Amino acid sequence: MITLRINGEKYKIDVAPEMPLLWAIRDIIGLTGTKYGCGIGVCGSCKVLIDNAPVQSCMIPVSFAEGKNVITIEGVSENLQLLQQSWSDLNVPQCGFCQPGQLIAATALLDKNNNPTEAEIDEAMLGNICRCGTYQRIKNAINRTVELKNQN
Amino acid sequence: MGTIKNISRRGFVKVVGLASGGLILACNTSIFSDKEKAPENLIDFNPNLFIQLNSDGTLILIASRSEMGNGVRTSLTSVIADEMEADWNKVIVKQATGDTKYGDQNTDGSRSVHYLYETMRQMGAIAKAMLISAAAQTWNVTENECSAEHHFIVHTSGKKIAFGNLVEKAKTLEIPTNFKLKNPKNFKFIGKNLKSVDVKEYNNGSAIFGLDKRIPNMKFVAIQRCPVTFGTVKSFDKTATLKIAGVIDVIEIPRVEKPFGALGGVAVIASNTWAAFKGKDALKVEWNYGDNKGYDSEKYMNQLTSNVHKNGKVGKESGNINRAFKNATKIVESTFQLPHLAHAPMEVPNAVAWVQGDTCEVWAPTQDPQTARKEVVDFLETTEDKVIINVTFLGGGFGRKSKPDYIVEAVAVSKAINAPVQVVWTREDDIKHGYYHTVSAQFMKASLDNNGNVTGWLHRFALPSIVSTFSPGVDYAAGFEISSASGVPFEIDNLKVEVGQAPAHVRIGWLRSVINIPHGFSINVFADELAHAARKDPLEFRLQLIGNDRIEDTQDEIKYNTARLKNVLKIAAKNAEWGKQLPEGHAYGLAVHYSFYSYVASVVEVSVINNKVRVHNVFTAIDCGTVVNRNTVKAQMEGSAIFGMSLAFYGKITAKNGAIEQSNYHDYKMVRMNEAPKVYVEIVESTERPTGVGEPGVPVIAPAIINAIFKATGKRYYNLPLADFGLV
Ligand code: FES
Ligand code: FES
User: Of the bound ligands, which one is closest to the alpha carbon of residue A37?
Assistant: First the structure.
């Protein structure tokens, strides 16, 4: 039995400890907002926050997350909510499939940097592919979120 | 409750069917299953297939085309809502299942809005006319005194009644044969920026893509397919697989020899995706590789290239090319080589299927649910009424998801094990077993006179045809693959297009903008090369080459207008301030192309510093006729720039010993955030019929980059991807 804390909820699951966290979240726990895109850590679709750090959940065993705080796209955090609002205001998504991973990566960025430069945004978002090509809007939405935060 | 009485559907079919050029709307029953009808205390009004108005004012509109980032669930329904004068906040969009009653649902070819715009307007206008009649009868006034406004019918006296309150009365009315469309001046949604109806679900992770579909007792399935296209299973050893926790069974599924049939292979059935993937890796399969085992991309490219360096079959000939070449002051010739591409949508192919006896229900990200249904019906040897295809959100499609081979696989496995299943392709499966964009060699030759005018133009190309997927053995390009070369919009007296032989060794399919990728590339790069040979500015030269304003004599109902083509080029150039001084190492390049009845030009700014290319800015202008949703058009142009850059920088699928060499996003790379340019889009104001948006932005990007690199460095590249030259 492995106990996970995801979005503040406790889940007890009976899986092999080496099962990647991604599949435990999607197939065992049933939270499908976290996506499979490559399975080898190069697309970012599967990103979740583990103790506030962005992690490719396809790359780490579920046992690694035990005792830690996991936040997925279904979860709540101040920066995530602000970013979701900007994403919506600027119509960022096209097909939408990569966007949970993009939003998690952006949340991790704003959690540790409240005024990122363009290069810092590139750096933070580099691991996330958007095949539809929404990069410009993602960048604008991150910048807009920062502006709104700094106004208040 | 809920049954529709007194509505002459036949009358409706007649009106709309004729006016819309063949959309079939024969339907005697409600589209809504009982649980989707208005709740107990509500009454609903279904004037036609696409609209249900409930008495609480909720307006349910049907999207008959698939949503894959194209914004179609928003654009098509907003047209209905605009004509109805509905409140957009009261609209709920419901996805249609695959059924011929909706007319053609195939979401490819950039034509959803193009085909359905008028029909959707009529749908909305009919509903509005009926609501007006209902109000007029209620008030005992004439219809002329009533109008629709923001979900109300308003009388000239000022009194008004909510749409929802008219439902009961509207239900009793005949469908009018006389209804008026709005004056486009009064459009509220059409031509404006409308947010996607699904944006919230995308952002909070609740949007259900095919991969996210879950049904009770569903098993997860991964399939090992032969590395060589159309190879078959000789034998397999499942011992190691069966030892993996979570693996339930291993079965062989046969190949279905149809264009969209399952490739066949060995299927691992498991209780979760990971176990299925691991089980698949642990399989030991012996294959009969079959005829395509010798496919080797390097050798094949040499073969294609030699085929375009000799005479081919004539696709078009006007004037006398030989005489033009003989009398030339200057001859320019070049050879272009472009590799296969894979669609690689962010969401891999997948499908949930549940076969029960002779019935089957499918949930899948499909661009073409009717074709999927047909394939399933054939496979199960059942009838259409027994098969339901539910269309989920698509995590990208780009043409891959209009080929339902992965749905047939899911149906085959579900039938074999008598349980609901989800077949999931790994990313490796997606890259290695696709329907690839064609590989091509092209030879271009042109003659110039002593004023630098182009007097002769020869375009010879060889590429395996999409038709080979449907008629095995076809080894020359088909008419639709020739027209983008033969229809080149240049005023040149002597023109010849020839086609060389090119047998297919993998499944060839259409990928976002299709044949316009190779032809848009060679034509735009070669025209730029000619400008240089003629010592003229590429923009001036190109406008001259396109020549006078004229309507080209194409077979199509929609005509090719060179004035519109020049206009987009001028706009892109103006927005870029073509000719201005750029920083050291930077340069502009341009390209312009007509496809899917739309006109697109892009000017790109690149820099080449230390032999590394960066794209800084893209200025795109598009004329796609009437614009339904500006936001969508703009987004599609932005996305097309990235899609075009990815293929220019990295796109390359190769085969060795018949097997595809690439496997995932690390060796089939995509442009990422740090490489993304700023994209500036101008949309031409137009009242012409709406035309394609999803694809026409792609073909101009790669050639514009090549032309800019030439301007910056004096070096011309004829082959893609640029990664092969160490430039990215
Ligand atoms: S699925 Fe984990 S990085 Fe791609
Ligand atoms: S929005 Fe489609 S992959 Fe990013």
Answer: 1
